[in-house]
Design brief:
Blueprint: H1 3-11, H2 25-40, H3 51-60, H4 64-70, H5 79-92, H6 98-107, H7 116-126, H8 128-137, H9 148-161, E1 167-172, E2 186-189, E3 194-195, E4 203-208, E5 222-229, H10 238-246, H11 253-268, E6 273-275, H12 278-288, E7 294-300, H13 308-322, E8 327-333, E9 336-343, E10 346-355, E11 361-364
Helix pairs in contact: 2-3, 3-7, 5-8, 5-10, 12-13
């Protein structure tokens, strides 16, 4: 993804840099309308659908009281995602409330009922102080396990291109590090192909819209795996896990089920995730990577939260490291995933795809027409 494309994605309102006191009702209302149109309707390149949050976003845009609550969201976070997660987290503990009943029916396959918006507004009015406490202190940190449906082939392509050396994996913006456990999962694609352990507790299903790239049938060896995150998520902490569950949209019970199953694997073998700014931590982690490995640095929907100057520094770190050894840069941002081989500061794309933001489908692309960075 090019820097301009990332800026365009960021410009759609993913993160909010204004202080709460600087946010107007008009701007907040437009933020929720954009969220409904471009992230919930399934009509954008992000290809994610939530009729529930589409309905509620349009309702919030017309409700000054709800906009006042949303105004309190932490700086640097995507406001709709954070606000909805805060409400859902409280609702998950309030099973007798009407809103909890709506969410339960939706999670069982129902459609948003006509009383959803009213129940949501009443719930927010009743629990306004609790909601404000959460939106001021919590962060939007998801760990979409199904994204491994395209990361697994990306790692396989790097393994082959790198001479079948063991992989060294660094996940930037790792959250809990669940994507570092990708080789513990089984993958089932719509063409009938399967990869991974036959007895895996996590099974990831994905629609292929064309042929799978040429990758090994067996999982490559991994010699090194490390995550980097400003605020690593500890899934051994029940409240941190429940908050991550609250970030899953009510319409997506399959995502919640995958998260529960992946957590069980995590609890048996937690991956190491370094706490800190990626621009400060990454050089140190790179220095620890074994020499005789195929080095992959990857990230999913992370760079769109970096300021432009920080992204440039990130690229400079990769380019500098590539003067000493090849780097495979697996970038999943906006509407595309790309695997770039960087050697001596020059990047060549070896694999590229359009994919659903949550990994539900993949369309592999002709790399000859793709940009490299």
């Amino acid at each position: 993804m090019t820097p301009d494309q990332i800026d365009g994605h960021q410009g759609r309102g993913r993160v909010e840099q204004l202080l709460p006191s600087e946010r107007t009702d008009e701007a907040l209302a437009e933020r929720f309308r954009v969220f409904a149109r471009e992230e919930c309707s399934g009509k954008s390149g992000l290809n994610v659908m939530s009729p529930t949050y589409e309905t509620l976003s349009l309702s919030i845009a017309e409700n000054p009281g709800l906009l006042a609550l949303a105004r309190e969201c932490m700086v640097g976070q995507p406001i709709p995602n954070l606000f909805f997660a805060a409400v859902k987290r409280i609702s998950d503990d309030c099973h007798c409330e009407e809103l909890a009943g709506h969410y339960t029916r939706i999670g069982e396959g129902g459609v948003p009922g006509c009383g959803l918006s009213g129940s949501f507004a009443q719930f927010c009015d009743r629990y306004d102080s609790e909601i404000v406490d959460l939106v001021r202190t919590r962060r939007v940190q998801t760990n979409e396990i199904r994204r491994c449906s395209y990361l697994m082939p990306a790692f396989g392509s790097a393994f082959v291109d790198g001479g079948r050396k063991p992989l060294a994996l660094i996940d930037v913006g790792a959250s809990a590090g669940l994507n570092l456990l990708w080789d513990s999962y089984q993958y089932r694609y719509s063409d009938g192909s399967t990869f991974g352990p036959s007895d895996a507790e996590v099974v990831i299903e994905c629609e292929l819209r064309n042929e799978m790239p040429d990758i090994p049938g067996e999982m490559p060896d991994v010699a090194f795996r490390r995550g980097v995150d400003l605020n690593p998520v500890d899934l051994g902490d029940e409240e941190q896990f429940l908050w991550m569950m609250a970030l899953v949209w009510p319409d997506h019970p399959d995502r919640a089920a995958l998260l529960r199953a992946a957590r069980r694997i995590w609890l048996n073998d937690p991956p190491r995730v370094e706490r800190g700014d990626a621009l400060e931590v990454l050089p140190r982690v790179l220095a620890e990577v074994p020499r005789d490995t195929a080095l992959c640095v990857f990230h999913c929907h992370t760079l769109n939260q970096f300021p432009a100057e920080s992204r440039n520094v990130f690229y400079e770190i990769l380019d500098g490291e590539s003067l000493d050894r090849p780097i495979y840069h697996v970038s999943s941002e906006g509407e595309h995933m790309r695997v770039n081989r960087i050697v001596n500061g020059v990047a060549d794309t070896i694999l590229s795809a359009r994919r659903n933001a949550h990994g539900r489908w993949i369309e592999w692309l002709n790399i000859e027409s793709q940009e490299t960075k």
